[in-house]
Design goal:
This is LIM zinc-binding domain-containing protein. By secondary structure, the chain is α+β, with helices and mostly antiparallel strands. 19% of the residues lie in helices and 21% in strands. Among the domains are: 1-56, Cysteine Rich Protein (Ribbon), CATH 2.10.110.10; 87-123, no CATH class; 128-183, Cysteine Rich Protein; 247-312, Cysteine Rich Protein (Ribbon), CATH 2.10.110.10.
Length: 327
C-alpha cells in the first residue's frame, strides 16, 4: 500500500490510484495554501500555479516589464517577451509576426532598418566616439577630448561633484571635471570639513574627496592604518566600530536595536520585533524554530508540511555540527 508523500500515512486504496498525497495534505511549499485543481510538482515538492510561475515561469525581457509570461511567449534576440512588448526599437510596431533585424541588441522592423542604414551613411563623415563607437552628431556641444580620444562628454560625470558634463568640461590630471572645478585644479570641497582641497594629499572615496587628515573613522576619529575601511550610510568607520554598529542592527527593522535587545539566530532584535513571522505572536522567552532565516513559533512550525520540517531539521543539525567543529 502506498503512503502519502507529506504525512507518510497510508493512502485510501479506494481513491485515485495515481494519487501520491492525501487531498487535505496537498499544499504549496511556498505559500502553504491548499492546492487548487491546477498545481505543479517540482523535485518532489508541490507548488500552486502562482508560485510555480513566479519561481520557474519565463519572464518578459522588456526593460519596464520583467513580469512572468502567462500567455503566448515570443522568442527573439535570445530572450523571451510578451507579444505586446516585442516591438521595433524605433517606431514601436509589434514584431511578433513580422520580419526584423537585430541592431545593437535591439530589434528593428525592415523599414526602420533601411532608414537607419541611410542615416549611418551620412554619419560616417562625423567624428566617432571612442567609448560607444557612435558618431558625435553635434561636436560643438557634445564632443570633448579625453586621454587624446574624442568622446561624447555625456558619457562622463564631473570627478569632483558628480554633475553631468558637456563639451565645456576640462581634463585635469587625467580626470574630467566641470568648468567650475577645472578652475580649482580639479579639486573640490572636503566631505568632512567642507573646506577646499588645495593639496595633492587627498583621498577620493565614498563619492567625495577628503583631506588626507580628515579621512578617519567617524566614531573614534582614528586614521586608518591601511587602505581598508568600512562604510555605514556613506561615512567611513574602522573595523572595530563598524562591527559594534552592525552588531546592534535589528534583524527585522534593519535599524539600531533599541530598548531591551534580544539575541537569537546569531543576530540582534528589538524586543517588539522578535515575533513569529507566521502568527506574529511575541517569541520573547518562548521556544522558536528558524525557518527561512526568520523565527517561527513551535505551534506554527508543527503545522508545516512534513517535507519542510525535515528540511529545517537537517539544516539545524548541520549548523550544530558546524558550530561544534568551530567552522
Amino acid at each position: 500500500m502506498q503512503n502519502c508523500q507529506v504525512c507518510n500515512e497510508p493512502l485510501d486504496p479506494a481513491g485515485d490510484s495515481t494519487a501520491t498525497v492525501h487531498y487535505e495534505c496537498a499544499c504549496c511549499i511556498c505559500c502553504l495554501e491548499p492546492l487548487g485543481k491546477e498545481f505543479y510538482e517540482v523535485k518532489g515538492s508541490f507548488l500552486c500555479r502562482e508560485d510555480y510561475f513566479l519561481l520557474h515561469g519565463q519572464r518578459c525581457a522588456h526593460g519596464s516589464c520583467g513580469e512572468v509570461i502567462h500567455g503566448k511567449v515570443i522568442s527573439g534576440l535570445g530572450k523571451t517577451w510578451h507579444e505586446s512588448h516585442f516591438t521595433c526599437g524605433s517606431c514601436g510596431v509589434q514584431l511578433a509576426t513580422a520580419s526584423f533585424v537585430a541592431r545593437h541588441s535591439h530589434a528593428f522592423c525592415i523599414p526602420c532598418n533601411v532608414k537607419m542604414k541611410s542615416l549611418a551613411a551620412k554619419d560616417s563623415a562625423k567624428p566617432e566616439c571612442a567609448k560607444c563607437n557612435r558618431p558625435i552628431q553635434d561636436p560643438t556641444n557634445e564632443m570633448t577630448v579625453f586621454k587624446n580620444q574624442t568622446v561624447h562628454a555625456s558619457h562622463f560625470d564631473c570627478f569632483v561633484c558628480g554633475s553631468a558634463l558637456d563639451a565645456k568640461c576640462k581634463e585635469v590630471d587625467g580626470r574630467l571635471v566641470c568648468p567650475a572645478h577645472a578652475e580649482s585644479g580639479g579639486k573640490g570641497t572636503c566631505k568632512k570639513c567642507a573646506k577646499i582641497v588645495r593639496t595633492e594629499r587627498n583621498m577620493v572615496a565614498l563619492g567625495g574627496i577628503y583631506h588626507l587628515e580628515c579621512f578617519v573613522c567617524t566614531k573614534c576619529e582614528t586614521p586608518f592604518p591601511t587602505s581598508a575601511f568600512w562604510e555605514i550610510k556613506g561615512d567611513p568607520y574602522c573595523e572595530v566600530h563598524y562591527n559594534q554598529w552592525m552588531g546592534s542592527i535589528c534583524g527585522h527593522c534593519n535599524d539600531v536595536s533599541t530598548g531591551r535587545v534580544v539575541t537569537a539566530m546569531g543576530r540582534k532584535w528589538c524586543e517588539d520585533h522578535f515575533f513569529c513571522h507566521t502568527c506574529f505572536e511575541s517569541l520573547v522567552n518562548s521556544k522558536f524554530v528558524s525557518w527561512d532565516a526568520k523565527p517561527v513559533c513551535k505551534k506554527c512550525y508543527d503545522v508545516l508540511p512534513r517535507s519542510v520540517r525535515q528540511t529545517v531539521h537537517r539544516r539545524e543539525e548541520a549548523e550544530k555540527k558546524r558550530m561544534k567543529a568551530g567552522i
